[in-house]
Amino acid sequence: MTHSIKDNPITDKKAMHQKTIADIIAGLNAGEFTSVEITQHYLNRIKQLDGTYNSFITVNEESALAQAEAADKRRAEGDAPALCGVPIAHKDIFCTNGVRTSCGSKMLDNFVPPYDATVVENFANAGAVVLGKTNMDEFAMGSSNETSFYGPVKNPWDTNTVPGGSSGGSAAAVAAHLTPGATATDTGGSIRQPAALCGITGLKPTYGRVSRWGMIAFASSLDQGGPMARTAEDCALLLNVMASFDPKDSTSIDREVPDYTANLNQPLDGLKVGIPKEYFEEGLNPGTEQAVHDALAELEKQGATLVSISLPHTKLAVPAYYVIAPAEASANLSRFDGVRYGHRCEDPKDLRDMYMRTRAEGFGDEVKRRILVGAYCLSAGYYDAYYRKAQQVRRLIKQDFVDAFEQVDVIMGPTSPSPAFEFGAKGDDPVAMYLEDIYTIATNLAGLPGMSVPCGLVDDKPVGLQIIGNYFDESRMLNVAHQFQQVTDWHQQAPTGIDVEGAE
Amino acid sequence: MTIERTDIEKLAELARIELNEATIAETTQSIADVLALVDQLQAADTEGVEPMAHPTDAVQRLRADEVTETNHREAFQAIAPATEAGLYLVPKVID
Fold first, then answer.
1. What is the pLDDT of residue A49?
2. Which residue in A376, A437, A438 has the most chain B C-beta atoms within 10 A of its own C-beta, making it the best mutation to test that interface?
3. In chain B, where are the structural domains located?
4. To bridge A232 with a disulfide, which of A325, A349, A481, B4 should be the other Cys (CB 3.0-4.6 Å)?
5. CB distance A340–B33 less than 8 Å?
6. B92 versus A173: which is more confidently predicted?
7. pLDDT value of position A7
8. Which CATH class is domain B5-42?
9. Alpha-carbon distance A480 to A267, whole Å?
10. Which residues in chain B have their CB less than 8 angstroms from residue A376's CB?
11. Which residue on chain A is closest to B17 by alpha carbon?
């Protein structure tokens, strides 16, 4: 069942933390509240609630208030950039000058970067206030946030369940209204899957759209940063700041960044939506399937046409990914050797001992597993059978999408096979966990943009609708998501238990 | 393809990760499970398909050969486990 929009509460009657980023900008512009006030409000909420959710690794109370004060001053002087005074949070994978950046790992527990990631710099230039750094699966390897050195994040909708991963901290913080928006990264679904499981909106842009400079690398040909927020409109506002051409990132695309809010209000008349049959086969939770079908029916009412399509190599995406991602990770993570920064073991007896024990102590089990799998796939005698083969399959997967986009404007389906699962449910079975990303991984392999939008609740747990766009077609995806959010209110649903005394 | 304890030991040596004796059997099994998943690739017909290294087949951008970075040695070494006189210290390699 789709909820219709109830009488919209008047913006200024919303509690401070119920405001969207668009509301906050309007409120700051109108002088209804200051950045210091709203920043303090969020810091109070984090203090009171995050003991339960564990969505932040580091909270920057002092610097956030100083940034808020500076933003208020700038605004008073008539110099207010796009996000002047708007509080946000950064995933703890983005390097922040002078603020510990752990990547969820013991290896980097003591790492305080001497520089800012380009994404962090972009937000600073736009006047945003950084509340803190959010929890994540170790080195972004995971789909449940259970691999974090700092303990798992709890899903605000049901604290017995996972928030998804790897950007589970960012997703949970947005869902629990501990921040109106956050940065995140997506290598195989790490923005979209936690967005789906936490009932928020998240967008992974086209590969190369957001700078990877200062974003700790996992699998460099797949990693891409993107925004998380409660609405598509807010994601557009964040992406406007986050996306840029960066000469310091050799894979950054030199292409103008459009205003992602410009097309939000376009009607959906004539929109062709591809529905891949492979995304509705065995393994999909029936409640999730129903919610996605209801969402598609809603879009049809708005003038969209549904077109059945096939992405025939879908089943090969997870196997190809688990060659390519670990292979790239094994190379990228070789830099963590205890020499220049991060963890070093006690009393190494020689250089080899230092490497071996530093890495054994600093990395968790899943990270070690992926490094070993990657080393295997790249090792002498196996390279052609694994790595080369996976790269060939990768091209077939991309070609499926290229063919589909000849017929349709966007592709839609579920973001994840089922709603949030309980802690430990996937146990020690890495393959069961890997299949959590079965609908999201192909998009990364192809380098395409993908998005997740709340589209229902199953057993009181959120379900995400995935929207996959053509290369650099983020504007259209945001337009579709925004139009969907004009006639549904799934994105306005909030978990119970996030309203606390004194933090109203 | 089967994977043995000795394979895991060799990989761990290559990757410079000391293995935990207590969990080595478990590690071997879980890596065997992942490789079984990955082996599904072998069924794919990839005859004549060009391997894909980059989603949009972009090529490396070149820049002028000019110094653009300033020296950050102090900032970088301030976070290092051990340094001396501008050098990173590691256990002795050669006697």
1. 97
2. A376
3. 5-42
4. A481
5. no
6. A173
7. 39
8. mainly alpha
9. 8
10. 3, 7, 11, 31, 35
11. A356
Give CA A51 to chain center in angstroms.
Answer: 22
**Nearest chain B residue (CA) to A352:** B16
| Helices A168-175/A35-53 angle, 10° precision | 120
Q: Tell me how far apart the alpha carbons of residues B53 and B62 are, in angstroms, rounded to a whole number.
A: 18
Sort out which chain B residues have CB atoms less than 8 A from A437's CB and list them.
none
Nearest CB to B15: which of A318, A371, A395? A371
Q: In angstroms, rounded to a whole number, what is the distance separating the alpha carbons of residues A36 and A139? A: 33
Residue A501, pLDDT score: 56
Chain B residue numbers with beta carbons less than 8 Å from the beta carbon of A395 are 49-52
Q: How many domains does chain A have?
A: 1
Q: Quick check: A356 and B16 CB within 8 A?
A: yes
Domain assignment of residue A222, yes or no:
yes
Helix segments in A54-103, DSSP class H: 61-76
Counting other chains too, the contacts that A342-350 makes at CB distance below 8 Å and 24 or more residues apart are A342/A107, A342/A108, A342/A110, A342/A111, A342/B81, A343/A106, A343/A107, A343/A108, A343/A109, A343/A110, A344/B81, A344/B82, A348/B91, A349/B91, A350/B91, A350/B92, A350/B93
Q: Left if phi > 0, otherwise alpha if psi is -120 to 50, otherwise beta: which for B31?
A: alpha
A255 vs B contacts (CB less than 8 Å): none
Q: List the domain range (segments joined by +) for residue A152.
A: 16-314+394-492
Rounded to two decimals, the ipTM of the complex is: 0.95
pLDDT at A235: 98
Contacts of B78 in chain A (CB under 8 A): 114
Picking from A109, A315, A378, A392 by the largest number of B CB atoms within 10 A of its own CB, the best residue to mutate is A392
Instruction: Give the closest residue to A421 by CA, choosing from A462, A380, A366.
Output: A462
CATH number of the CATH domain containing A297: 3.90.1300.10
The shortest C-alpha distance from B59 to chain A (Å) reads 8
Q: Which residues of A are the active-site residues? A: 91, 166, 190
Q: Give the separation between CA A65 and CA A174, rounded to whole angstroms.
A: 19
State how far residue A465 is from chain B, nearest Cα, in angstroms. 24
pLDDT along chain A (504 residues), means of 10: 40 79 97 98 97 98 98 96 98 98 98 98 98 98 96 98 97 98 98 98 98 97 97 98 96 95 98 98 95 98 98 97 97 97 96 97 97 94 92 98 98 97 89 92 98 98 98 98 98 91 50
Q: What is the dihedral of CA A71, A77, A82, A84, to 10 degrees?
A: 10
Indicate yes or no: CB of B53 within 8 angstroms of CB of A355: no
Nearest to B14 among A253, A379, A388 (CB): A379
Terminus-to-terminus CA distance in chain B, angstroms?
43
Contact between A86 and A128 (Cβ < 8 Å): yes
Mutation target for A interface from B9, B13, B56: give the one with most A CBs within 10 A: B56
CA B93, chain centre distance (Å)? 22
The rounded distance, in Å, linking the Cα atoms of A182 and B52 is 32
Under 8 Å between Cβ of A237 and A22: yes
